[in-house]
Amino acid sequence: MSAEMEIDFLASSTRALADPQLRRNFRRAMDGLMAKRAAMFPDPAEWTRLRALGAAIRAKNLLKLPELLERLEKNLTKNGITVHWASTTAQASQKVLELLEARGAKAVVKGKSMVSEEMGLNHFLEAHGIESLESDLGEYIIQLDGEMPSHIIMPAIHKNKDQIARTFSQKIKDAKYTEEVDELTAMARAVLRQKFLDADAGLSGVNFAVADTGTLCLVENEGNGRMSTHVPPLHIALMGLEKVVERMEEVAPLYSLLTRSATGQAISTYFNLISGPRGGGEQDGPREVHLVILDNGRSRIYQDEELRATLACIRCGACMNHCPVYTRIGGHAYEAVYPGPIGSILTPQVAGVGLRHELPHASSLCGACAEVCPVAIPITHLLIRLRREASHRLSGSTVLGAGEARSKLEDLVWSVWGWVLGHPAAYRFSSWCATRFWRLLPANAPVLKAWTLSRNKPRAAGRSLQERARGRGLPHV
Amino acid sequence: MREVYFYATCLVDLFFPDAGMAGIELLQSAGVRVIFPRGQTCCGQPAFNCGYWEQARAVALSQLALFPRDLPVVLPSGSCAGMMKVHYPELFLGQPQEAEAKALAGRVFELTQFLVDQLDLKLEDLGEPVRVTLHASCHAQRDQGVLDQPKALLRQLANVDLVPLARERECCGFGGIFAVREPGLSEAMARDKTEDARASGAALVLSTDGGCLMNIGGTLEKQGFGPTTMHIAQFLRERTRVR
């Protein structure tokens, strides 16, 4: 999210649409995820109740966020976990580097962390001579290919097994070509197993940080999270500052909503509760545990009571799985760390709504995202809010880059539109002209040109309904 | 005698007047006095969705005044009904018309919603056997809670075989300005919808919303084969009588 270039979403989405293999891979994967999620919420009443609870917990925690972060730091410190604060991704990366260099670390293994993607941490560490190996299978696959995640939960979902087989046979030493999923997994496992044992440090993300108990919760399915956080002598956890929850009992409903919404699992294979380094007399666990808490624009988002809902996200990815736009282009086309609907509201707020003004428009506003969001983030409402912010300087706005994407042409078009439709006599005159002369309008006229690329020109009626209603003598009062 | 206001919407006014008239006649044949206020233009949704709220408000303001009596407002569109029901209160939040907008929101109905939920309309099928499918408009289902009502009406018809679309609830790619702002994405979504419609074996694709029909129908016509499209009001009016 640190790129300060204006992206061309139209071009990147057009490229993605032209890749039939990519379209098939996503459609198939997203169909599967949607079906699995639906099977997890068979009872609408239970879904409604649990979602309301999840939304209320997240809203309350955000309301108390500054206080909870202080409490979290106090209790983590009490548990022997050292807390570091970073305003920017550069500061966060620097802090991680300092911790590693001070201990002479040369190799780290990583559990999955979207915050580390925000930081571009792998490249940063490698530039400083430290090997940073992804241990989540999906992350490992895309690291081999030098790619970004295309989904926040399933980073390699844009690839099918044939493509993964090719990557492994080309990139893993002495690997034979196989399309057997079990064999591919075993190949990755053989590489990673030794890396866990040799690593000087383990990095991980955080799903929930419990303020009252000073506990870091980590949800995962492969055991790599546990290996990364327990085997190496140093564990550095990374989290966005919005991940704090007040009480341990609040984790249960959020966890249930997360796994059911994300992968259609009643519960994940592993759930780690990290409450400190190895204690006296204990046989395993890291000697040191550190937590880096990243802001990167979040406190700015926090200032706006409406946009604050963006921070309620528990990163389940259900909004992307159900998004008809994401399903057709995949995550890379968004050219952002967080793709899909949640990314389309988050990225413009972090990178600037002027630079990323196309993202809030990457939606037909169908509302499928908001419908499945387990914490009821009003995503479509916020997409519209950010469209407003991009083209207007709203009074009291705290949005980065507000008004920067203002277009004189759009201003003019909407002003004329508003004037005509705000004056019924002007509308009647225009509609009379439109119904009489519509067929004279060429199919390559502005706006109509884009429409007729794939559709026939609509046929206007010879007489409008209003004219007919008057002709019928329908009462008007 | 029951009375309602009928709000045409700009798309129905200019592109689907037969559907609008059919909606009016369905209401009348159920014994409802239909009032068609003068001064109708557009609900303001295009500017609202694009973030031009000042202009949307100017348009919405001129429409708010059209429904002075405390009567239901019926629209042959789930999307425009959703605009009045869900988004007018947002648009007028903190404005002098806030209370008026909220009061209006409480009496807005999509046509099939009104026919089923308020009138419990019973129809007799007079038409030839036909297989049809229904595209569920996003805003009808999500803003207005309309999905079962059009199906309930179609299921009353003895000679109509209603078959589902495989992805019934997925967006057709219209999205108003989205269709021309992101033409590639919109086309990809519309193409999938038309393939779905063809695979259903239906001769007709019905919908509660003109925008979706214009998109799906325009795409099918350009492709040159497949089912035709029709607004559900027109379909019901042409082949039924009220029992």
Produce the secondary structure layout.
The complex is a heterodimer of chains A (477) and B (243).
Chain A: H1 9-17, H2 20-40, H3 44-63, H4 65-78, E1 81-86, H5 89-102, E2 107-110, H6 114-119, H7 121-127, E3 131-134, H8 137-144, H9 161-171, H10 181-198, E4 201-204, E5 208-210, E6 215-220, H11 224-230, E7 234-240, E8 244-245, H12 251-262, E9 270-274, E10 288-294, H13 298-302, H14 318-321, H15 324-329, H16 340-351, H17 368-372, H18 379-391, H19 408-422, H20 424-437, H21 448-451, H22 465-472
Parallel strand pairs in A: 1-10, 2-3, 2-4, 4-7, 5-8, 7-10
Antiparallel strand pairs in A: 5-6, 6-9
Helix pairs in contact in A: 9-10, 16-18, 19-20
Chain B: E1 2-6, H1 10-14, H2 17-29, E2 32-35, H3 45-50, H4 53-64, E3 73-75, H5 78-91, H6 98-105, E4 108-110, H7 111-118, E5 123-125, E6 130-135, H8 138-142, H9 148-155, E7 160-163, H10 178-181, H11 183-200, E8 204-207, H12 210-223, E9 228-231, H13 232-239, E10 240-242
Helix pairs in contact in B: 2-13, 5-6, 7-9, 11-12
Structure description:
The complex is a heterodimer of chains A (477) and B (243). Helix content of chain A is 49%, strand content 10%. Chain A has 477 residues and is α/β, with parallel strands linked by helices. Chain A folds into three domains: 1-40 and 317-406, no CATH class; 42-299, NagB/RpiA/CoA transferase-like (Rossmann fold, 3-Layer(aba) Sandwich), CATH 3.40.50.10420; 421-472, no CATH class. Chain A has a six-stranded parallel beta sheet with strand order 1-10-7-4-2-3, sandwiched between helices. In chain A, a hairpin with a 4-residue loop joins strand 5 (208-210) and strand 6. In chain A, helix 9 (161-171) crosses helix 10 (181-198), helix 16 (340-351) runs parallel beside helix 18 (379-391) and helix 19 crosses helix 20. Chain A starts with 8 loop residues before the first helix and ends in a 5-residue tail after the last helix. Chain B has 243 residues and is of the alpha/beta class. In chain B, strands 2-1-3-4 form a four-stranded parallel beta sheet, sandwiched between helices. A four-stranded parallel beta sheet of chain B has the order 7-6-8-9, sandwiched between helices. In chain B, strands 5-10 form a two-stranded antiparallel sheet. The two termini of chain B are 18 Å apart. The mean pLDDT of chain B is 97. The chains are: A alpha/beta (477), B alpha/beta (243). Chains A and B meet through helix 1, helix 15, helix 17, helix 18 and helix 19 of A and helix 1, helix 2, strand 2, helix 3 and helix 4 of B.
